[in-house]
Specification:
Blueprint (H helix, E strand, L loop, with lengths): L1 E4 L6 H14 L4 E5 L4 E5 L4 H10 L5 E3 L5 H5 L31
Helix pairs in contact: 1-2
Length: 106
């Protein structure tokens, strides 16, 4: 699956135009559009270069983004905030409230 950041995609009409542009390159492609995050994910046979060109021809400026880390990788370090491993059961055993910075780190 390829993911593109399309910062000039602002509405449903933009999303529809981009989806049609992708379909013109790869009729069997599956397109997922996240308008609030301005992300377009495409699963299909077309290359990133072909998809980029099609989206650009539709009037938008896509930037391919690398795959986001899996949720398991983000949470494997303990609480998920990136603070590192926590003692087993520390959250369930009455962990101290989060600091003002919004983290459980001390």
């Amino acid at each position: 699956m390829l993911t593109f950041q399309v910062n000039d995609m602002t509405c449903g009409h933009c999303a529809s135009t981009i989806a049609k542009a992708v379909a013109a390159v790869d009729k069997s492609a599956r397109v997922e559009v996240d308008i609030p995050r301005k992300r377009v994910r495409v699963s299909g046979a077309a290359s990133a270069a072909d998809l980029t060109e099609a989206i650009q021809d539709a009037g938008y400026t896509p930037q391919e983004v690398q795959a986001e880390p899996a949720a398991a990788a983000r949470t494997a370090s303990g609480c998920g905030c990136g603070c590192g491993p926590q003692k087993p059961g520390s959250v369930d055993a009455g962990q101290a409230p989060a600091s003002a910075a919004g983290s459980c780190c001390r």
